Amino acid sequence: MDAQKECVFVSEKSKIFPSTRLFFSFLLCLCFVALAIGTSNISQSMVCMVKKPDSNYSCPLAEPEVEAVPCNHPKQFAWSSIQQGLIYSGQNFGSLFMFVTGWQADRLNGKWTIVAAMVFIIISNALLPVSAGVSFALVFFLRFLTGVGDALLSPASSSMITRWFPPKERPSALGIVTGGRQIGTLIILPVGGWLCGSDGSKFLGGWPAIFYLSSVVAAAVLVIWVVFSADKPSKHLCISHNEEAYITRKIEEENIGKRKQRKSTPWRAILTSKPVWVAVAALVCHEFPLVIMLQFLPKFFSDVLGLSNTVNGLVSALPMGILFLSKCLSSSLASYLTANGYMRKTQSCKIFNFIASLGLGICIAATPLFGALQQSVWAIIILCLANAFAGLHTPGVQTALVQLAPAFSGVITGIAFTVAACFSIFNKLLISQILTTGSKQEWTIVFEISAFVAILPVFFFTLWGSAERTEWASNRVSIPKDADQKSNESDSSTSSTIQAFAKYSMFLSHDLTISA
Fold this sequence. Notes:
membrane, MFS_Na/Anion_cotransporter, Major facilitator superfamily (MFS) profile domain-containing protein, transmembrane helix
């Protein structure tokens, strides 16, 4: 029996479809769907929660023995533009913890880290409708907790991607996983628009239902994640011996090492690495204009184009759908080009990022030219095109971030998104300050600033960006091979049960039977 186990055949290639690692990427995608629903819900609900600044409606005088009804809806709040900006940016304040969580992401169990992230998202959304009527500070704190959930999820998922996927498959994996953000936004915006409308407002009071729904979705994803996920391939019930061996061999070529074999984080090398900071700066320039797409787009459609709540929700979801398709298609194309030798990793990242930044900047700059109700169709088309270009950042700078040092991808991701969160806070507060009345002129300023930032990576990332593994990226220390090696021996009846279960899984590409 032992001799047979020593002779397991490992093929040079292992199909990604169908496979357990593809199934795992869908599980991570679901987590990002729940995160996006729990974070993007504020963009549509804010339109319904806040009182309009100017109203000519006056209350009728109260009649004797008749209770006066307040003019304003009891669930609308007179928040100032600064307060609205703080609520929008509350999530980003929580995301600042990504620096700490990213540092530990490569050391902690990714599965249970994501469980904690889901719990934060569930609690923060479930309590927000009640807290909104009590205190603005409570709303800010709950949005802060939502950001903490993001700070736990993003580095953990990046670290798990480097453990589950060989280098050439990571662009595709990133496209699927992070595409969950767009799927979640695509779901919550039209649903939120309907709940804010006259028909949906009868259901759980309108906008509060948006947050309750977000909490329920996160709870459902949490159950699915706990049952079907695993921290690494060797712990997953449904993975074949051949696929596990293939992943292990490909990743060992990067010298990542195991948790118990890890050397200390090379902070000096990371913080002085030019490719790391070039990628971080490019990520900031990518995330900066997306603040409009993810948080302020419903407000733009309401302020400038004058769309109703229901139509607003549907139209706001269109650019998110385009962004998701663009990410998936471009990431698959990048994986194909690099896997078949048509492009090197750095060349692929630079080309995709160049097209993304240039196209995104031009489209955002052109949007204010169509800022009128009669031109609303063209404005929507331009914004959809902008998101199509933005999707190319996934095989661009986002892939470069996880390729530079796979062993420390959690640390680098934590640093990158912490810096991006700082700029997002500044951006949201700046936009809230500019949009005091929501006029077309104010929105033009917002779009032009974002366009300028978006186009910067065309120059510096194209010149100095890199996706090649750095010389300090090895995470292995020299220790004897002893107890850390996992034993492959198990009870024969248990093994037979697992094999029978796995054979009938649609996600497996290989039989578990060991070849002699």
